[in-house]
Design goal:
Elements (H helix, E strand, L loop, with lengths): L1 H20 L18 H16 L11 H16 L9 H31 L6 H26 L4 H6 L7 E2 L1 H4 L12 H14 L6 E2 L2 H29 L1
Antiparallel strand pairs: 1-2
Helix pairs in contact: 2-3, 2-5, 3-4, 4-5, 4-9, 5-8, 5-9, 8-9
Length: 244
């Protein structure tokens, strides 16, 4: 057993030496250990999601309406304190805090979306077209951010696992993975790539140039398209009816 473990460690050491010695041009960046991506993009987008939650009508939020946004800010502050500049694999609790933060944002937006849809169906929401469109647009945009965070957090084990480059199979296939000659040698997917994926899936209601490979990725994209479609159809239909 010890001999086998020693052989495995030796093979790993040889691979690392080859990468350091000149095979970085052969192995793409998303398949090898790299530096963690900067935190500013995901931090800025999370702050936008919190601001959108606070701008929604308070009757659509879990009460008291300020509790979830405050908890989200506290969790975000913990993530920044643990990894202030880059998303790097330091301690396990950072990933748990990140998952808790995404869960709270998802809960808040999901609750608001359900309340809005129920209100539209029963006729208690949507008496004025302008505020209705703003409310529906805020929920839709937050939904884009929510699913971008989930895609980013789960693809190949999440950003901290992707830094290590140990998971061979991707959950999402980006164009740069299929045609590496179209991108710099150090290209690898970052949060803004997943935000683009989420936005196009919410507008086209289907994959565009990023293909889901794993079953969970397909199911998550299907769920996002369904939520986006229901929200857009009901809100726009109600607003058109009011304007007429």
């Amino acid at each position: 057993m010890n001999d086998r473990m020693s052989d495995a460690e030796n093979r790993l050491a040889r691979i690392e030496r080859r990468l350091e010695g000149g095979e970085r041009d052969v192995v793409p960046a998303w398949r090898r250990a790299t530096q963690g991506e900067p935190r500013w993009a995901v931090t800025a987008v999370i702050l936008v999601a919190v601001a959108l939650q606070l701008m929604l009508p308070h009757r659509l939020a879990l009460q008291p309406y300020w509790v979830l946004p405050v908890l989200e800010i506290l969790l975000l502050a913990g993530l920044i304190a643990g990894n202030p500049r880059r998303v790097e694999p330091r301690t396990r609790w950072l990933r748990l805090v990140g998952l808790a933060l995404m869960g709270l944002i998802s809960l808040a937006n999901g609750w608001a979306a359900v309340r809005l849809v129920v209100g539209l169906v029963t006729g208690t929401e949507g008496t004025d077209a302008g505020p209705l469109l703003l409310t529906g647009g805020g929920i839709w945009l937050t939904n884009v951010i929510v699913f971008a965070l989930w895609y980013w957090e789960w693809d190949r084990g999440g950003p901290m696992a992707r830094v290590r480059g140990r998971q061979q199979y991707a959950d999402f296939l980006f164009v740069q993975m299929q045609s590496p000659e179209t991108a710099p040698a150090d290209w690898e997917p970052a949060f803004l790539d997943y935000l683009y994926l989420s936005f196009t899936n919410s507008t086209a209601f289907s994959p565009t140039d990023v293909m889901p490979l794993s079953r969970w990725a397909k199911m998550l994209m299907m769920l996002q398209s369904s939520v986006s479609l229901v929200t857009v159809v009901l809100v726009v239909a109600r607003a058109v009816n009011i304007l007429r």
